[in-house]
Amino acid sequence: MSKNDSPAMTKKDSTVKKRGAATKKKKYTVKKKKRDTAKKSEVMTKKRKLDGGVHGESPQVMTVYLNLAQALVNPSTAEKSSALVSLLEKNLKLAKPFKSKKKSGVDPSKKKQSAAWSRHKMISSLSQNSTYWVLKVIDSRRFSETELEMVLDVFRWVLVGYFDSKKSQIKVYFLEEVFRRRVWIVRKLFGFLVEKRVNPKVDFRRVKALGLVSEGLRSLVSVSKETREESKKRMKSHMGKLSCLVKELVENVHEKQVRRAKVRKFCGRVFKIVSSLRLTKSFLKGLGPDGQRGCETALGDLFLNLKNTED
């Protein structure tokens, strides 16, 4: 090959290389699109399977999920947790990511504690999201009253543990969210909830659980005129227990201002509901003379305003 031919050949080789690179890029793009399409199809298939399980077409989905969840919380499978979390998240689409942020430069003991805490939070999050999902499954099917009563028994057991044991790790906000999502549960358990709140074995739950009772009240009462009579009927059936709760609150005023404020806020909500449904007379009767005096002392004008609306 002569020196004069070298530039031409170099230019030709360069063109061939460019065409080859373009062809490879095109093939890669096509393969990528195929992979994305296949992945999308797989996700949709899994979603249809989950939907089928929810609507009764494939009951095996509950068994599969239960087995995965048990494997996840089993200490012997701790090393495989990340893979199981991925299955529960991506395959069943049940919850938000549970993965914790990785940290570097931490001493082994603290790193071990951090790992244990991250695992605890992950399992806690899984439990909560699983509860929401199972309740969704229950609502989508036609269960008998006996079967639904079994569901209520589970929540009764949870409430007993919360009010009677310091070891209970149930969070109030979780129960509030359950009540918010499934009104039928709190309507069935409201009387039981108030009873446990009046006489808890764990004293610090007294004020902390008022938010839970408030959520229950919100579920009992509807602002719609069409259901006003139904709301009144539901409230009237719990009036005695509600009066006892308010009486107990004003007779055991807490030293901390923050907790007193929570009690005042809760009582104000009760008074507002009672007066709006024209149940003031029934409520005052439930309080009795001692309870009314306690309300006047602890709540002042807030209670006097209620008495002025007596029907």
Strand percentage lies at under 5%
Shape: elongated
Order of helices and strands: HHHHHHHHHHHHHH
Summed over residues and divided by their number, the pLDDT gives a mean of 73
Count up the helices: 14
Give the C-alpha Rg.
Answer: 30 Å
The main β sheet shows up as: none
Total count of strands: 0
What is the end-to-end distance?
113 Å
Helix content: over 70%
* Number of discrete domains: 3
Flag low-confidence runs: 94-101
Helix and strand composition category: mainly alpha
Structure description:
The chain has 311 residues and is mainly α. The chain folds into three domains: 36-94 and 118-140, no CATH class; 143-220, no CATH class; 227-311, no CATH class. Helix content is 77%, strand content 0%. The chain has 14 helices and no strands. The chain has helices at 6-54, 60-73, 81-91, 108-140, 145-164, 172-181, 183-198, 205-208, 210-220, 228-237, 239-251, 257-276, 280-299, 301-308. Helix 7 crosses helix 9 (210-220). The protein is elongated and about 105 Å long. Mean pLDDT is 73; it is low at 94-101. InterPro entries: DNA_pol_V/MYBBP1A. GO terms for molecular function: DNA binding.
